[in-house]
Design a protein that fits this description.
two-stranded antiparallel ribbon; 10 helices; alpha/beta; 278 residues; TIM Barrel; 11 strands; 7-stranded parallel beta sheet
Length: 278
């Protein structure tokens, strides 16, 4: 397995950390155990993670604040964050792709993270009230102004990615994707063609029902691994542009997830996993 991939102008390891679940229940408010959240972030870096994904909507604000507290000044660490979602309460997510909101969002993220430039700034989700092109234009304007190094998009279709590529350089796409959910396979293939990093969220099942599938259970037993580890190992071997970002609020689960990079699935097992969502 290739261990690194180019994200923008830096090489990052192909297993990152998603910092959504270090917040409170419903991705709302502070975590129940603040010190544990800090420990999870620091342990991720100790285990070799050099890419952490977050968003201003996680908390809101809480995830970015914890990352700053735990990891600033981010030595040899790439921080990617997002803008374009607002919150109405636990589990409530509302898109806002207006230029005013995006500009306010990045200024707030820069302040919370104590950065002069966001290395990877991602458009969190298209807003049906604002044209995709209009919102993305704001992202490229922020890049031209020096507040953003590289632009990414999230929850995007092939058509939206093609439109974005016609406007400027796209460093990454972040969509829901896993061994159980291949809805974005066409987006992944376009990313491969264009040399764009593909960041799957819910990389081990997420809201698709988890990995409670007989085939995965059988393969997990063969490797003396968890279904979570098999799901991550499959992603890492499925495409060289994939960078999974499994998130957790548990040091134990974090350590388990990171061991997935050591699993080399046999060709017959990859074929069996491929067939699950065929």
């Amino acid at each position: 397995m290739t261990e690194r991939v180019r994200l923008g102008d830096k090489q990052i390891k192909r297993l990152g950390f998603g910092a959504m679940r270090i917040t409170g229940e419903g991705i709302w408010g502070p975590p129940d155990d603040h010190d544990n959240a800090i420990a999870v972030l620091r342990r991720a870096v100790e285990l070799g993670v050099d890419f952490i994904d977050t968003a201003d909507a996680y908390g809101p604000n809480v995830s970015e604040e914890l990352i700053h507290e735990a990891l600033f000044p981010y030595d040899n660490l790439v921080i990617g964050t997002k803008g374009g979602l607002t919150r109405g309460g636990p589990g409530m997510w509302m898109p806002d792709g207006s230029a005013d909101h995006i500009r306010q969002a990045i200024d707030s993220s820069l302040k919370r993270l104590e950065l002069e430039q966001i290395y990877l700034y991602q458009f969190h989700r298209p807003d049906p009230k604002v044209s995709f092109e209009k919102t993305l234009r704001t992202f490229f304007e922020l890049q031209a102004e020096g507040k953003v190094k590289h632009v990414g998009i999230s929850n995007a279709s092939v058509e939206q990615l093609q439109l974005a590529l016609g406007m400027g350089k796209i460093a990454s796409v972040q969509n829901s994707y896993s061994v159980m959910n291949r809805d974005s396979e066409d987006v992944l293939r376009l990313c491969e063609e264009q040399g764009i990093v593909f960041i799957p969220y819910f990389p081990i099942g997420g809201n698709t029902g988890g990995l409670n599938e007989q085939t995965i259970d059988r393969i997990a037993g063969k490797y003396d691994a968890s279904v979570r580890q098999i799901g991550l190992a499959w992603l890492l071997q499925h495409s060289l542009v994939i960078v999974p970002i499994p998130g957790t609020s548990s040091v134990e689960h974090l350590e388990e997830n990171m061991k997935a990079a050591d699993i080399e699935l046999a060709a017959e097992d990859i074929a069996a996993l491929d067939s699950i969502a065929a």
